[in-house]
Amino acid sequence: METALDGSHMNKYNNKSEPNQLTDSTVCVLIGHSIEAITSAVVLASFGQCVHLYADKTLLKQQIQQYGFEHHLQALWQMYEQQQVIISKELPASADMLIKGYEAAGHNETDIQSTVTLYWLFLDSVKLAWTEDSWITAFNQSHQQALPVIMSGIEQLGHVADLAQRLRRAWVYYVPFVFLQDGDAYSSMLNPSLWLLGEKTASSSQHLNVLKPLMQHARATHHADIATIEFARSSIMAMLATRVSFMNEMSRLADSQNVDISQVSRIMGLDERVGSSYLKAGWGFGGNTLPTELAKLQQSSRTHSLDMPLLQSIVHINEDQKELIFRKFWQYFDGFIDNKTVMIWGGSYKSGSGRTAGSAIHPLLALLWSYNIRTLVYSDKAQHELAELYQQQPLLELIISPYQQLCDTHAIFIVSWSPRDQLDIAKINQQAMPVFDAQNALTCSQINSLIGDYMGIGRTK
Amino acid sequence: MEEIKGDKAYSSARHSKYWQQLQTLAKHPWSLAQSFAQDDKRAKHFSVQTGALYMDFSKQRIDQTVLSNLLSLADSCELDARIDALLQGAMVNTSEQRAALHTALRLPETATLQVDGQNIVTDVHHSLSQVARLSERVRNGTWRGFSGKAITDVVNIGVGGSDLGPLMATTALDEWADTSIEVHFVSNMDGTQLDNLLKHLNPETTLFIISSKSFGTVDTLSNAKTALSWLLATAKLRAGTEDSVLRRHFIGISANSEKMRAWGIHPEHQLQLWEWVGGRFSLWSAIGLAIAIRIGMNGFKALLSGAHSMDEHFAQADFSENLPVLLGLLAVWNSTFLQVNAHTVLPYDGRLGYLPSYLTQLEMESNGKSVTRNGDHIDYDTCPILWGEIGSNAQHAFYQLLHQGTQQVSCDFIACVRRYGDEARNSSLQQQHELSLANCLAQSRVLAFGNAAVTDLVDPQTVSEADKYKYYRGNQPSTTLLIDELTPHSLGALIALYEHKVYVMASIWDINPFDQWGVEMGKQMADSVHHAMQHIQKDAQGLFDTSTDQLLQRIKQLS
Q1: Please, what is the average pLDDT of chain B?
Q2: Tally of CB atoms within 10 A around B152
Q3: What would the pLDDT profile of B210-225 be if each residue is shown by its tens digit?
């Protein structure tokens, strides 16, 4: 993958000289502290754009720390901050103050005349600071109605389209981050798998010149009205969630049929009509995007008094799936699990990420602790987040090696194990303990090499 | 057990002069319409309040003289000493030689009550902590079925007091339920309820509470046996063992731990009752586990606290302002002196739908007696026939009899003043509540005053002979209880009010309200008939009476 550390992207996309040599710069004004906002700032900077990122600085700092596992993004962020290509600023009390600051003649903290190229609002962050009425009024009172405004975020269906209509200006856009991948945020935005653009005014994407490289590099693009793009975003995410829950439901049948669901997934993927993505059975889906998306869809269905039983089932299966591995553990010991010690490998909601939101580790830990079970957790990327969350929990011990204290444990749980990390089966075999693999992380040959028992999701030894 | 006072030493109300005076007063032709006409402050004179309960008994056929005599009657039988005896753990259940300490079940943890040299409050709170522990494990999903799934449904199997109390309270307080776990109740011996219920439940996620003080009640054990078979049928398909099913799906509540153990209840899942808790007074004990599961332990404790506040009122308030004492005395006045031998309970609130059934058992099983505590035959009427229904439903069922039948019936109207306070989204519910309250007040008024209650609609003087079927005679006595708001606390106070009412009546009648010998013989006879049904030839005769023999033969021929 290309890296921007050597400035290659800047050379590629930047029409101007070095950003810190700008005398009459144009700036992209981003408002938000989310990972989407941070990634956008870095990507725009790598295109040679000067970025002013307005955010609650405390939240921004926390977010950057939490995404420490995004090494590439972090390195670029630091570099662009040092070069003052990205300038993070404290979010003012009102949108009005922010806009007027740019519109006032001669305003510039760095003594450089700044001309705004676009405003990009990350709605999750914006709503924490400003009311919708206030920021819409501020933008509508702006003298620069020709400037484009982009919005991003997961909202209830039609809400972004509604906001766009309330804005007076014509050049209003919606960019959903359907392409963003945790653990690979920068690259997944730089070369988006799918670029969707919602336009308030049809065929007006030429007003977003600064984003042209993204559109050019996207593997697929589509522009449509904002409401359609919102609906498409939700539908894509719901479909992915559906596939996961479907496979998880099938995995329960596979359990009773002594069939390995992982093999079934691979075979299914060979059928072009099905495709291979999101077919892996495991503990379900977590993170922020899919759960938020499903919650918003359910909210929309309630608003319109529509019954959506499939959506309900997807959510129900997913929640239930998160404790399925615990039930296998329970059944294995016939419920006599009090006071045991177990090892857990991984804690993030997917391998490669350091985030644990929606991860199966949370319900698993809660259940284990309710039986006074000592839990040794190895999770290199999510270690920090788990330590923060559960610092008062005496039954939790975060360890720095997966094989540390293995001899003290009665079972191993696998929640999120990176395929890049090699499992040392020999070390597991020294104890011959049962392995409860919630991620179906082990290969068939690894399973066969185990001396102890193996319980996966839809697969057993 | 240390007696507060020897039981036989209590004076008898029956032989006091007030009894005779009340008999004389009862012959007076009472007219409620006249009573109200003569005293424009009658409602004020005949109403009392404690906590969230307000009681208007001005529509009873009494005046100050009657009330004064009733209060004196209470004094004549040393009611204050009897109340002390009850609350202090004296042996008030004379036939079974034990105390009746349901009030101890709701004493605060800081209280002490020495019985047989032991502070039973410690035992009570130990038991409550077990209820808290088990209910919390079920509620928070820690309790798992044999397959490791969390519990979604709890089935309380019990009968009588082990059923009616928790059923009534969980129904009344369902608005306080803060869990998705459903609680169901099964009591019928014939299996109808269980059969209907099991069709909708998942054996992996269903927990059964087997409640039986003796753990020998055939109704309960037959249901429990069916439940176990149902669980095992599924468990065996999933490699679940009988031991696992018994351990993960049954909680036992009984005074007989040996029988619980023999049945297969795991020791950690046994909750103890005490012999001094009568079944119909037991919802405050571990029998209330189903309530704790549904509304949480804090809600259950609020229920106990409400009952305790009524206990304190009962113990401390002057009889003239003492709700349970007044309610009990009025019941005695109606039944024993006015020969009003039917009583109906009419809650104008769907949440209290099971209260009439609960009170039917509480009053009729307690006071349906005809001998004194000394075994002497009683020559006066004791407990009336009691039944009831949600008031607005009853209006379309048996109110016809109340208004125009030949029977005299006393009524308790019960209504909650505030409801749907938080439900601004649906003002029509508020309007329904108002309509219900209006009906409650209207019915008590028509029952009291008959046609005179609606003189603007019907002039009683002008009802012609031909229209006599339109005539409402009125003069039916009633009491109206208004509850500020139905909460766990106020419900606790309401139930305790009726418990103490029962004790007051029993004290005046000098009967033991804590035994129930009248239900024993039927159980024994059922054993004999059941044995005959299983082991005797089809044409066997001379086993029982000819009627029973004949019915038995027909059953055996057809089955």
Answers
A1: 93
A2: 18
A3: 999 999 999 999 999 9
Choosing from B78, B363, B365, B499, which is the catalytic residue?
Answer: B365
Buried b (16+ CB within 10 A) or exposed e, B293-326: bbbbbebbbbbbebbbbbbebbbebebeebbbbb
CA A417, CA A430: separation in Å to the nearest integer?
20
With contacts defined as CB-CB under 8 Å, which chain A residues touch B144?
327, 330, 335
pLDDT at B81: 96
pLDDT at residue B191 greater than cutoff 60: yes
**Residue A51, SS3 per DSSP:** strand
Closest CA in chain B for residue A338 = B142
With an 8 Å Cβ cutoff, are B144 and A331 in contact? no
State how far the Cα of A360 lies from the Cα of A382, in Å rounded to an integer: 13
d(CA A444, CA B350): 60
> Which CA distances in Å does A372 have to A73, A100, A365?
40, 58, 10
Residue of B523, B530, B531, B538 marked active site: B523
Helices B323-332 and B488-509 sit at what angle, rounded to 10 degrees? Answer: 50
**B161-172 and B355-367 are packed helices; what angle lies between their axes, rounded to 10 degrees?**
150
Using alpha carbons, select from A316, A341, A315, A314 the residue that is nearest to residue A329.
A341
Please say if B28 is a catalytic residue.
no
What value does the mean pLDDT take over residues B128-147? Answer: 96
Interface of A with B in 330-349 (CB under 8 A): 330-331, 334-335
- The pLDDT score that the predictor gives to residue A111 is 45
The alpha carbon of residue A336 is apart from the nearest alpha carbon of chain B, in Å, by 10
Q: How confident is the model at residue B298, as a pLDDT?
A: 98
Q: What average pLDDT does the segment A418-424 reach? A: 83
- Is residue B268 within 8 angstroms of chain A, CB to CB? no
Q: Is the pLDDT of residue B458 over 80?
A: no
The interface predicted TM-score of the complex, written ipTM, equals 0.78
